[in-house]
Amino acid sequence: xxxxxxxxxxxxxxxxxxxxxxxxxxxxxxxxxxxxxxxxxxxxxxxxxxxxxxxxxxxxxxxxxxxxxxxxxxxxxxxxxxxxxxxxxxxxxxxxxxxxxxxxxxxxxxxxxxxxxxxxxxxxxxxxxxxxxxxxxxxxxxxxxxxxxxxxxxxxxxxxxxxxxxxxxxxxxxxxxxxxxxxxxxxxxxxxxxxxxxxxxxxxxxxxxxxxxxxxxxxxxxxxxxxxxxxxxxxxxxxxxxxxxxxxxxxxxxxxxxxxxxxxxxxxxxxxxxxxxxxxxxxxxxxxxxxxxxxxxxxxxxxxxxxxxxxxxxxxxxxxxxxxxxxxxxxxxxxxxxxxxxxxxxxxxxxxxx
Length: 354
Fold this sequence. Notes:
four-stranded mixed beta sheet; single chain
Protein backbone atom coordinates (compact mmCIF):
# COMPACT_ATOMS: atom_id res chain seq x y z
CA UNK A 1 0.00 0.00 0.00
CA UNK A 2 1.26 3.46 -0.92
CA UNK A 3 0.23 6.17 1.52
CA UNK A 4 0.33 9.93 1.02
CA UNK A 5 0.19 12.13 4.11
CA UNK A 6 -1.28 15.51 3.18
CA UNK A 7 -1.46 18.34 5.71
CA UNK A 8 -3.91 21.17 5.24
CA UNK A 9 -5.92 18.60 3.30
CA UNK A 10 -9.17 20.57 3.32
CA UNK A 11 -7.48 23.72 2.05
CA UNK A 12 -6.85 24.84 -1.51
CA UNK A 13 -3.65 22.97 -2.34
CA UNK A 14 -4.15 20.16 0.15
CA UNK A 15 -7.56 19.17 -1.21
CA UNK A 16 -6.30 19.33 -4.79
CA UNK A 17 -3.37 17.11 -3.79
CA UNK A 18 -5.66 14.69 -1.94
CA UNK A 19 -7.90 14.20 -4.96
CA UNK A 20 -4.95 14.02 -7.36
CA UNK A 21 -2.93 11.39 -5.50
CA UNK A 22 -6.00 9.39 -4.44
CA UNK A 23 -6.81 9.20 -8.14
CA UNK A 24 -3.38 7.67 -8.67
CA UNK A 25 -3.99 4.87 -6.23
CA UNK A 26 -2.62 6.32 -3.00
CA UNK A 27 -4.30 5.82 0.34
CA UNK A 28 -4.52 9.45 1.47
CA UNK A 29 -4.27 10.40 5.11
CA UNK A 30 -5.43 13.99 5.41
CA UNK A 31 -4.45 16.15 8.39
CA UNK A 32 -6.49 19.34 8.90
CA UNK A 33 -8.20 20.91 11.92
CA UNK A 34 -9.83 23.85 10.07
CA UNK A 35 -7.57 26.38 11.75
CA UNK A 36 -8.23 28.65 8.77
CA UNK A 37 -11.54 29.42 10.46
CA UNK A 38 -9.65 30.57 13.57
CA UNK A 39 -7.36 32.74 11.45
CA UNK A 40 -9.94 34.39 9.19
CA UNK A 41 -13.42 33.74 10.53
CA UNK A 42 -16.40 31.56 9.69
CA UNK A 43 -16.48 32.56 6.03
CA UNK A 44 -13.00 31.11 5.52
CA UNK A 45 -13.79 27.72 7.07
CA UNK A 46 -12.72 24.71 5.02
CA UNK A 47 -15.30 22.39 6.61
CA UNK A 48 -17.29 22.29 3.36
CA UNK A 49 -14.24 21.05 1.49
CA UNK A 50 -13.42 18.39 4.08
CA UNK A 51 -16.97 17.07 3.77
CA UNK A 52 -16.63 16.93 -0.01
CA UNK A 53 -13.36 14.97 0.25
CA UNK A 54 -14.85 12.42 2.66
CA UNK A 55 -17.93 11.98 0.47
CA UNK A 56 -16.20 11.73 -2.89
CA UNK A 57 -12.88 9.96 -2.23
CA UNK A 58 -13.14 6.40 -0.95
CA UNK A 59 -9.41 6.08 -0.20
CA UNK A 60 -9.28 9.26 1.89
CA UNK A 61 -9.14 9.20 5.69
CA UNK A 62 -9.33 12.44 7.64
CA UNK A 63 -7.41 13.18 10.83
CA UNK A 64 -8.67 16.24 12.73
CA UNK A 65 -5.23 17.12 14.02
CA UNK A 66 -3.08 20.18 14.69
CA UNK A 67 0.42 19.89 13.21
CA UNK A 68 1.80 21.26 16.50
CA UNK A 69 0.47 18.15 18.25
CA UNK A 70 3.62 16.02 18.33
CA UNK A 71 1.96 13.03 20.02
CA UNK A 72 -0.98 13.10 17.63
CA UNK A 73 1.32 13.15 14.62
CA UNK A 74 3.34 10.29 16.10
CA UNK A 75 0.23 8.10 16.13
CA UNK A 76 -0.62 8.87 12.51
CA UNK A 77 2.89 8.29 11.19
CA UNK A 78 3.38 5.15 13.30
CA UNK A 79 0.12 3.75 11.96
CA UNK A 80 1.24 3.92 8.31
CA UNK A 81 5.01 3.57 8.83
CA UNK A 82 7.07 2.59 5.80
CA UNK A 83 3.94 2.56 3.60
CA UNK A 84 4.22 6.36 3.56
CA UNK A 85 5.74 7.22 0.19
CA UNK A 86 4.84 10.89 0.03
CA UNK A 87 4.27 13.79 2.43
CA UNK A 88 2.74 16.97 1.00
CA UNK A 89 2.86 19.69 3.65
CA UNK A 90 0.48 22.55 2.86
CA UNK A 91 -0.85 23.39 6.36
CA UNK A 92 0.13 26.89 7.47
CA UNK A 93 -0.78 30.22 8.95
CA UNK A 94 -0.73 31.92 5.53
CA UNK A 95 -1.14 35.66 6.12
CA UNK A 96 1.61 38.18 6.83
CA UNK A 97 -1.01 40.60 8.23
CA UNK A 98 -2.42 38.03 10.65
CA UNK A 99 1.03 36.90 11.81
CA UNK A 100 1.61 40.25 13.53
CA UNK A 101 -1.46 39.66 15.71
CA UNK A 102 -0.17 36.41 17.19
CA UNK A 103 3.53 35.93 16.40
CA UNK A 104 3.83 32.87 18.65
CA UNK A 105 0.92 31.13 16.94
CA UNK A 106 2.29 31.98 13.51
CA UNK A 107 5.78 30.69 14.27
CA UNK A 108 4.74 27.52 16.06
CA UNK A 109 2.36 26.57 13.24
CA UNK A 110 4.70 27.41 10.37
CA UNK A 111 8.12 26.57 11.76
CA UNK A 112 7.58 24.14 14.64
CA UNK A 113 4.79 22.34 12.80
CA UNK A 114 7.08 21.80 9.82
CA UNK A 115 9.85 20.52 12.07
CA UNK A 116 7.41 18.04 13.63
CA UNK A 117 6.46 16.69 10.21
CA UNK A 118 10.04 16.43 9.01
CA UNK A 119 11.04 14.55 12.14
CA UNK A 120 8.05 12.21 11.91
CA UNK A 121 8.95 11.48 8.30
CA UNK A 122 12.61 10.86 9.16
CA UNK A 123 11.73 8.48 11.98
CA UNK A 124 8.92 6.52 10.32
CA UNK A 125 9.39 6.79 6.55
CA UNK A 126 12.82 8.26 5.73
CA UNK A 127 12.62 7.21 2.08
CA UNK A 128 9.41 9.14 1.50
CA UNK A 129 9.35 12.26 -0.67
CA UNK A 130 8.65 15.39 1.41
CA UNK A 131 7.15 18.40 -0.41
CA UNK A 132 6.69 21.73 1.35
CA UNK A 133 4.61 24.65 0.13
CA UNK A 134 6.87 27.56 0.97
CA UNK A 135 6.31 31.14 -0.21
CA UNK A 136 7.91 33.96 -2.15
CA UNK A 137 7.77 35.95 1.11
CA UNK A 138 11.04 34.24 2.10
CA UNK A 139 12.67 36.89 -0.13
CA UNK A 140 11.18 39.63 2.04
CA UNK A 141 10.76 42.99 0.33
CA UNK A 142 14.02 42.66 -1.62
CA UNK A 143 12.08 42.42 -4.93
CA UNK A 144 10.99 46.02 -4.27
CA UNK A 145 14.59 47.14 -4.89
CA UNK A 146 14.31 46.09 -8.54
CA UNK A 147 14.27 48.99 -11.09
CA UNK A 148 10.49 49.02 -11.53
CA UNK A 149 8.78 51.36 -13.97
CA UNK A 150 5.21 52.60 -13.49
CA UNK A 151 2.90 51.84 -16.40
CA UNK A 152 -0.78 52.60 -16.90
CA UNK A 153 -2.12 49.55 -15.08
CA UNK A 154 0.94 47.92 -13.49
CA UNK A 155 4.45 48.25 -12.21
CA UNK A 156 6.88 46.52 -14.54
CA UNK A 157 10.51 45.58 -15.03
CA UNK A 158 12.24 46.83 -18.17
CA UNK A 159 12.44 44.22 -20.92
CA UNK A 160 15.89 42.70 -20.92
CA UNK A 161 16.30 42.73 -17.15
CA UNK A 162 17.58 39.32 -15.91
CA UNK A 163 14.39 38.89 -13.84
CA UNK A 164 11.98 40.12 -16.54
CA UNK A 165 10.57 36.61 -16.99
CA UNK A 166 10.55 36.02 -13.26
CA UNK A 167 12.65 36.10 -10.10
CA UNK A 168 14.82 33.02 -9.77
CA UNK A 169 16.23 31.15 -6.78
CA UNK A 170 19.47 33.17 -6.75
CA UNK A 171 17.75 36.12 -5.05
CA UNK A 172 18.96 36.52 -1.46
CA UNK A 173 16.61 35.95 1.47
CA UNK A 174 18.77 38.16 3.73
CA UNK A 175 18.76 41.85 4.70
CA UNK A 176 15.12 42.56 3.96
CA UNK A 177 11.78 42.99 5.71
CA UNK A 178 9.94 39.70 5.52
CA UNK A 179 6.95 40.23 7.81
CA UNK A 180 6.73 37.76 10.69
CA UNK A 181 4.94 35.34 8.38
CA UNK A 182 7.82 35.48 5.91
CA UNK A 183 10.26 34.84 8.74
CA UNK A 184 8.40 31.79 10.06
CA UNK A 185 8.08 30.34 6.56
CA UNK A 186 11.76 31.03 5.86
CA UNK A 187 12.65 29.05 9.00
CA UNK A 188 10.52 26.16 7.77
CA UNK A 189 11.96 26.44 4.25
CA UNK A 190 15.53 26.15 5.57
CA UNK A 191 14.57 23.19 7.76
CA UNK A 192 13.19 21.38 4.71
CA UNK A 193 16.41 22.02 2.82
CA UNK A 194 18.51 20.91 5.79
CA UNK A 195 16.69 17.62 6.29
CA UNK A 196 17.39 16.94 2.63
CA UNK A 197 21.04 17.90 2.72
CA UNK A 198 21.97 16.72 6.22
CA UNK A 199 19.88 13.55 6.49
CA UNK A 200 19.77 12.70 2.78
CA UNK A 201 15.98 12.94 2.56
CA UNK A 202 14.13 13.65 -0.67
CA UNK A 203 12.78 17.09 0.15
CA UNK A 204 11.76 20.20 -1.77
CA UNK A 205 10.56 23.68 -0.88
CA UNK A 206 8.24 25.13 -3.52
CA UNK A 207 8.31 28.90 -3.07
CA UNK A 208 4.90 29.81 -4.41
CA UNK A 209 3.61 32.97 -5.97
CA UNK A 210 -0.17 33.34 -5.68
CA UNK A 211 -1.71 29.88 -5.44
CA UNK A 212 -5.36 29.86 -6.41
CA UNK A 213 -8.23 27.81 -7.73
CA UNK A 214 -11.91 26.92 -7.26
CA UNK A 215 -11.40 25.26 -3.86
CA UNK A 216 -10.02 28.41 -2.25
CA UNK A 217 -11.88 29.73 0.81
CA UNK A 218 -10.73 33.28 0.13
CA UNK A 219 -10.72 35.86 2.92
CA UNK A 220 -9.70 39.51 3.20
CA UNK A 221 -6.26 38.64 4.57
CA UNK A 222 -5.50 35.69 2.30
CA UNK A 223 -6.51 34.34 -1.11
CA UNK A 224 -6.87 37.60 -2.97
CA UNK A 225 -8.26 36.32 -6.30
CA UNK A 226 -10.93 34.14 -4.69
CA UNK A 227 -11.89 36.90 -2.26
CA UNK A 228 -11.85 39.49 -5.03
CA UNK A 229 -14.26 37.41 -7.11
CA UNK A 230 -16.43 36.77 -4.07
CA UNK A 231 -16.73 40.51 -3.40
CA UNK A 232 -17.51 41.15 -7.04
CA UNK A 233 -20.31 38.56 -7.04
CA UNK A 234 -21.84 39.41 -3.65
CA UNK A 235 -21.41 43.18 -3.73
CA UNK A 236 -19.03 43.18 -0.78
CA UNK A 237 -16.48 45.96 -0.42
CA UNK A 238 -12.85 45.21 -1.29
CA UNK A 239 -9.84 47.19 -0.08
CA UNK A 240 -6.78 47.70 -2.27
CA UNK A 241 -3.70 48.33 -0.15
CA UNK A 242 -1.12 50.70 -1.61
CA UNK A 243 1.04 50.91 -4.73
CA UNK A 244 -1.83 52.55 -6.65
CA UNK A 245 -3.37 49.12 -7.19
CA UNK A 246 -0.63 48.39 -9.72
CA UNK A 247 1.19 45.73 -7.69
CA UNK A 248 1.84 42.61 -9.78
CA UNK A 249 1.50 38.93 -8.88
CA UNK A 250 1.74 35.72 -10.87
CA UNK A 251 -1.01 33.18 -10.27
CA UNK A 252 -0.95 29.41 -10.60
CA UNK A 253 -3.94 27.07 -10.62
CA UNK A 254 -3.86 24.58 -7.74
CA UNK A 255 -3.99 21.60 -10.11
CA UNK A 256 -0.99 22.87 -12.09
CA UNK A 257 0.92 23.20 -8.83
CA UNK A 258 0.02 19.67 -7.72
CA UNK A 259 1.12 18.38 -11.12
CA UNK A 260 4.51 19.99 -10.38
CA UNK A 261 4.54 18.15 -7.03
CA UNK A 262 3.86 14.90 -8.88
CA UNK A 263 6.74 15.56 -11.28
CA UNK A 264 9.07 15.97 -8.31
CA UNK A 265 7.66 12.87 -6.59
CA UNK A 266 8.34 10.72 -9.64
CA UNK A 267 11.93 11.97 -9.99
CA UNK A 268 12.92 13.41 -6.61
CA UNK A 269 16.02 15.31 -5.55
CA UNK A 270 17.53 16.18 -2.17
CA UNK A 271 17.05 19.51 -0.41
CA UNK A 272 15.82 21.34 -3.50
CA UNK A 273 14.27 24.80 -3.79
CA UNK A 274 11.99 25.92 -6.61
CA UNK A 275 10.25 29.21 -7.30
CA UNK A 276 6.84 28.22 -8.63
CA UNK A 277 3.88 30.22 -9.85
CA UNK A 278 1.98 31.23 -12.93
CA UNK A 279 4.98 32.98 -14.48
CA UNK A 280 4.77 36.03 -16.70
CA UNK A 281 1.95 34.57 -18.81
CA UNK A 282 -0.36 34.38 -15.79
CA UNK A 283 0.62 37.61 -14.04
CA UNK A 284 -1.67 40.54 -13.36
CA UNK A 285 -1.81 43.72 -11.34
CA UNK A 286 -4.56 44.35 -8.83
CA UNK A 287 -6.24 46.75 -11.28
CA UNK A 288 -6.01 44.17 -14.06
CA UNK A 289 -7.43 41.45 -11.77
CA UNK A 290 -10.36 43.69 -10.85
CA UNK A 291 -11.14 44.32 -14.52
CA UNK A 292 -11.04 40.60 -15.30
CA UNK A 293 -13.28 39.70 -12.35
CA UNK A 294 -15.77 42.36 -13.42
CA UNK A 295 -15.77 40.96 -16.94
CA UNK A 296 -16.41 37.40 -15.77
CA UNK A 297 -18.96 38.28 -13.07
CA UNK A 298 -20.74 40.81 -15.27
CA UNK A 299 -20.88 43.46 -12.55
CA UNK A 300 -18.74 46.19 -11.06
CA UNK A 301 -16.69 45.67 -7.93
CA UNK A 302 -17.12 48.02 -4.99
CA UNK A 303 -13.64 48.80 -3.76
CA UNK A 304 -11.80 51.41 -1.78
CA UNK A 305 -8.15 52.35 -1.97
CA UNK A 306 -5.83 52.68 1.00
CA UNK A 307 -2.46 54.44 0.59
CA UNK A 308 -1.00 52.18 3.26
CA UNK A 309 0.60 49.09 1.76
CA UNK A 310 1.08 45.91 3.77
CA UNK A 311 4.41 45.66 5.60
CA UNK A 312 6.91 43.65 3.57
CA UNK A 313 4.52 43.42 0.63
CA UNK A 314 5.84 43.08 -2.92
CA UNK A 315 5.29 45.77 -5.52
CA UNK A 316 6.14 43.32 -8.31
CA UNK A 317 6.65 39.59 -8.10
CA UNK A 318 6.68 37.08 -10.94
CA UNK A 319 8.06 33.60 -10.33
CA UNK A 320 10.99 32.49 -12.46
CA UNK A 321 10.14 28.95 -13.58
CA UNK A 322 13.30 28.17 -15.54
CA UNK A 323 14.96 25.96 -12.93
CA UNK A 324 11.92 23.76 -12.38
CA UNK A 325 11.26 23.54 -16.12
CA UNK A 326 14.88 22.57 -16.69
CA UNK A 327 14.65 19.78 -14.12
CA UNK A 328 11.16 18.68 -15.24
CA UNK A 329 10.74 19.62 -18.92
CA UNK A 330 7.49 17.65 -19.34
CA UNK A 331 5.60 19.83 -16.85
CA UNK A 332 3.20 22.31 -18.41
CA UNK A 333 0.59 24.70 -17.03
CA UNK A 334 -2.86 23.77 -18.30
CA UNK A 335 -4.82 26.76 -16.97
CA UNK A 336 -4.61 30.43 -17.93
CA UNK A 337 -5.43 33.17 -15.44
CA UNK A 338 -8.83 33.69 -17.07
CA UNK A 339 -9.55 29.94 -16.99
CA UNK A 340 -8.80 29.91 -13.27
CA UNK A 341 -10.96 32.94 -12.49
CA UNK A 342 -13.87 31.48 -14.45
CA UNK A 343 -13.60 28.28 -12.41
CA UNK A 344 -13.50 30.29 -9.17
CA UNK A 345 -16.63 32.14 -10.30
CA UNK A 346 -18.53 29.00 -11.29
CA UNK A 347 -17.57 27.16 -8.13
CA UNK A 348 -18.30 29.99 -5.75
CA UNK A 349 -21.55 31.55 -6.96
CA UNK A 350 -23.90 29.09 -5.28
CA UNK A 351 -21.82 28.79 -2.11
CA UNK A 352 -21.37 32.54 -1.65
CA UNK A 353 -25.07 33.31 -2.04
CA UNK A 354 -26.19 30.47 0.22
